[in-house]
Amino acid sequence: MDKARIRMCRGLVLLVLPMLLVATEIGGCKKRDDRPKVVLLMKSLANEFFKTMEEGALAHHEQHKDEYALKVVGMKNETDVAEQIRNVELTIAQGVDAIVIAPADSKALVPVCKKAMDAGIIVVNIDNKFDNDVLRDKDAKIPFVGPDNRKGAKLAGVYLATRLQPGDKVAIIEGAPNAYNGIQRKMGFEDAMLGSNMDIVSSQTGYWETDKALPVASAVINEHPDLKAILCANDSMALGAVTAVKEAGKVGVIHVIGFDNIAAVRQLLREGKILCTVDQHADQLARYGIEYALEMLRTKARPADKETPVDLITAELL
């Protein structure tokens, strides 16, 4: 075959190949995914609460696969704010349609989430509410879908007060100081304790983690031998407090309460080692956020907060 004919054949191939590719895509062999792309950005999956949240999101997606595509991203360390900011940046670069985020920091994550909104991405805030002042400063209207943490903590504190006497000494182990939900839970505990005339002798952070709450609880038990209760802003820290109470030989003397209703505390509730906890329904929180994000994508609705349930959990209710 001469060179002219070879060049002609090559030209025909280059002309026909794109047409074949187009025809193949139209014919369904290469199907385009037009579903909205939703990313769920959480804190550490080492925390059972967020593992439960992930499982709830995946279960919802399994039932609605034809409606949206889902990616779940967790952090290695619950307080690694920089890592979560990088995850949001990466998500923006991937060109997703919606981000549902449980922020590690109520203030520091606002600017990058505003950046996502400016890129045309729907952002829905769950679990830990963004700081209102920072939202106003950044002119960001990000809806919060989640529980009233102050109300939930007060439920637990009021129940604890039925087991105490006015003037009894109690201690609070707070969540991370830069987390809105931790601040609200501390305030709810204070509402209940001060309203019942209890003596709050200590209020310190345990940064949400068991191994950080344990020495805090041990120190306050040693400093206040007549301590009657430790109120913990999440169940992971309550596990640390339970260990401290056991090591001090004061099981049954010092009450421990938590917040989240993770599986690890339920047997301790039955055994009386934890008095009560609060269920904010981790498995449903992500679902609520995802459903609202999809609704906003469909209807272009203006963002508005939506309160979700909180329930007191005691051994009698298990």
Query: If you compute it from the alpha carbons, what radius of gyration comes out, rounded to the nearest whole angstrom?
Result: 25 Å
CATH level-1 class of the largest domain: Alpha Beta
Task: State the separation between the terminal residues, measured CA to CA.
Answer: 84 Å
The largest sheet is:
6 strands, parallel
Low-pLDDT segments, ≥5 res: 11-28
User: Averaged pLDDT, please?
Assistant: 91
Fraction in beta strands: 15-25%
State the helix count: 11
Q: Count the strands?
A: 12
What is CATH's topology name of the largest domain? Answer: Rossmann fold
**Helix-strand pattern:** HEHEHEHEHEHEHEHEHEHEHEE
At the fourth level of CATH, the homologous superfamily of the largest domain is Response regulator
The tally of domains stands at 2
Shape: elongated
The CATH architecture of the largest domain can be named as 3-Layer(aba) Sandwich
Q: Estimate the helix proportion, in percent.
A: 40-55%
Structural class: alpha/beta
Kindly report the spatial arrangement of strands forming the biggest sheet: 2-1-3-4-5-11
